[in-house]
Amino acid sequence: MGGTGGQDGSSVSDEEWERFLRETVTDTTGAPVEPSARAREVARRLREHPGQPEGWRTYSPARPRRRKIWYVTGLVALVALVVALFPQQIVGWFGGDDGGGQDGAPLAAESEAPRKAPDAEPDLRPTLAEPFRGSPAARWADGAAGITVPPAKATGWMDAAQVERALKQSRDFLVAAGLDSDVLRGERPTKAIALLNPHQKDVQDYLRTALSSRKPDPDTDPLLLFSRFRPEQTRLVGDVVKTRGRLTYREGKRGAVEVTADVTFVYPVTPAADSGRDAEVIRTIVRRKVVMSWDDPAKVITEPGTMSLVSYALDMTNGGCSGPTGYFVPPFGTADEQPTDDDHLIDPYDRSKPIDTSDGTASPDDDCATATRS
Known about the structure:
By secondary structure, the chain is of the alpha+beta class. It has helices spanning about 15-25, 75-85, 85-95, 160-180, 180-185, 190-195, 200-210, 365, and strands at about 40-45, 55-60, 140, 145-150, 235, 240-250, 255-270, 280-295, 310-315, 345, 370.
């Protein structure tokens, strides 16, 4: 093949085309698309109390079922699929990156809602040495650096300096709930709890039940707010969790500053009992949307440096597809399962779509979906 034209009219040499074909089919048989848990956590309102913060939390009845996965294998099928669906990516591979390309450069911070899903990555299996290989998260920032905080300006009852402090503490809550190494190992999320208004009765009741029950139900599952793995079953690979998302804010009820966080966390994990060089690596992908109200103490009973929860919602992939256990349960050993014809497919990296916040009436078949990638 002599060459193929790019968007700018340039041609690609035989050597470059052969390199593209070799990289396209590298390691396709071990694609890291695991069964996903579409644990869609949905909103309900707390009762409004005079002088008390108003809030509502989200959850869904957990009646999921396991789903299976599929991969595209073979040179002809994969090349056809890539050319048909991702022409911009092909240009990126040959030097014409369109902003979401494959050159390995870190992505710019997310400053607004994305308009599309990330481009497809080479279909490579994650390893202990490269746990984000073959994933859009490879180009995301590490930890708190991936959570964008907007500039502060006077809003509601707060001046600009107070808003700046509220935004910082909002991000601190996300870090304490989703990135703290002790919390990830199942320990009590003390730092996160310290940022919650102790006078918000329903949330405090939830915390007491969620963190003490051995068999949580869907609306007392600690995973609604906190990321946790059982250390005897699951071990994090390395000390890096990739994140992407942002904070926004506006004036809320009674002049409060209402901060909304929409952040995706990617946790590479391996079986705790497997310490070999070829240990299986799975990525548990968790997207959280948390709405926090920094209330005017003249109008709401609160404590300095604490906020009330307005809502919290969760979407997770590779975190478990059965009843709640209080911990993420990665589906180790299921990488080669095949899909059924009626599988509902989702892309856990697509942040252009909102988290599903239906009214909780979805059928059991809708509660677990199949991830197109992990």
